[in-house]
Each structure stands twice: as C-alpha cells, then as structure tokens.
Amino acid sequence: MSLPAFTLNNGVEIPVLGLGVFQSSPEETTAAVAEALRVGYRHVDTAAAYGNEREVGQAIAASGLPRDEVFIETKVWPSDYGYDETQHAFDKAAAKLGVEQIDLLILHQAAVSMFDRTIDAYRALETLLRDGKVRAIGVSNFTPAALTRLLDVASVVPAVNQVELHPYHAQKDVQQADSDLGILTQAWSPIGGITFYPGFGDERRSVLQDPAIAEIAAAHGKSPAQTMLRWGIQQGRSVIPKSTNPERIAENFDVFDFELAAEELGRIDALDTGVRSGPDPDRVFTEQMLFPIPEA
Predict the structure, then answer these.
(1) Looking at the domain assignment, is residue 292 inside a domain?
(2) What is the CATH number for 104?
(3) Which positions are catalytic?
(4) What are 155-167's pLDDT values in tens digits?
(5) N or C: which terminus of the chain has fewer CB atoms within 10 Å of its end residue's CB?
C-alpha cells in the first residue's frame, strides 16, 4: 500500500505515521527499524540524545530501499545548541545515519532558560535548509509562548512541532497555535504507552486501559492503540508510536482500513485531563541535562 502523507508548509511530504525509537537500545533499534520497514513504514524518528542514530541508519541501508523512499527525522540536543554547534550537530547526525541529507531536523527542546542559544541553533537549521542539507526543519516540545519568541526573530516557520500528545494530554492550545502558523503537530507518545497517569488517590491509570477507548476499539475490531493512532491521524496529526515488538510494530501500522465517527472522535477528545506526564517544556536545563553528544 502507498502510505498516506501530510504536506508540510514548504511542500515536502511526510508519511502520516512513523516508527519512534525513543528508549530503544542500539541492539533493539536495528531489528525494530528493519521490521518496520519490512511491514511498510517509511518514516523513522530518532534523536541525537537517543544514542541510536547509527543503528537507524544501518537498518535503513540494509533494507535495500531507495534513500528517497524513507523519511528520516532526527533531533538536535540542547548541548549542541548555538549556530556553529548546531551545524556540527548536523554533521554528527548525518555521519551516524550514513546519509548526506536529512529529511527533517528539529530542535529537541525549547530550552527556554538558554533561549539565546536556541535561537542561534534555529538559525543554523535555517542555513542547513537553505544549503539543501535538510529538506525541512522544525521544533519539539515548544509551547505557544516559545513559538512566539522564536518567530519574533526566525525567518522560516517550523514545519513540525513534535509534542507529547495523546487522549489524556491533548494540548489543544499547542495544536491551535501550530494550526494558526501552518505547523504540523506531531505526537510523541501518541498512545500514552510509555507513561502512566495519576488518577484519584493512589489509583494509577493508563490510556491503553481507558474503558471509553476500549469500547470504541471493540466496535471497530481494533486495539486501543490502533484506535488512538487513528484518532490522531484523522485529526491531522503526525503520529510516531514506539515499539520494538514485531507484533506491536505491525499492529500500529494497521490503522488505514477504518474510520472513527465524529461522535467517537469527540468521546476521545473528552478524555483530556490537561496533565502532562513527560518533561515540563519550560524546565531549566542544568549542566547534568546538557550531556555531550558523541562524535560520529
């Protein structure tokens, strides 16, 4: 099948669904990416901070697929922010991935406590885009306020803003800001699978175990994970579920043969708690968090 794609604000097409490799060990990453590409994925999302860019590149090369058929996305960590530093971060990432051009390069965090360096890093992304070393540029974990600060000085509107987004934390304000600016919202943890959320008292609940989602999933003969991915895609978001399990990798890809009704989308929308589980995007970056990214 031909994988559906969204068109970014600069005309580049990005597959609507990709494989995420956050917290995948280097050993697991090669096999997971190879299996995903075999199943039909054509988009892989990694990051310098994940420590597995090299394995992503090796799996893509070993697949035998033409380079232009696989969309590669990676991220620059704040320790490599700054104009010259970020240009070198591209060199490191490209060498590890084994490519000359990266499809989408984004800043991993807004790093608001050192935003001057963030701006310099984004200016480097603009140069890399102009020079044809990347096809599109973007950001990750940017709030509306951070987007405003960036666009006060930037000359290129980010193509993508990758944020924590799932039924329990839908970030409607971020989605609206992105939409107003022509930025594609991309969801990390789109099924909430890497985190759990506090309920009342000592109760803890997972999005994957939500009864409303289970009921909607059963009505379509799909899993809760598939239902959440479909919810994201139908509402115009890029989704990048992470898995190293071959069965889950295949299951997460099998989301193009059903549609959720408007009422079902609304029921899932209503599950939003407004409570994030991942890192606060406004947190202060300490020296410990600014760990060095190894050379290629």
Answers:
(1) no
(2) 3.20.20.100
(3) 50
(4) 999 999 999 999 9
(5) N
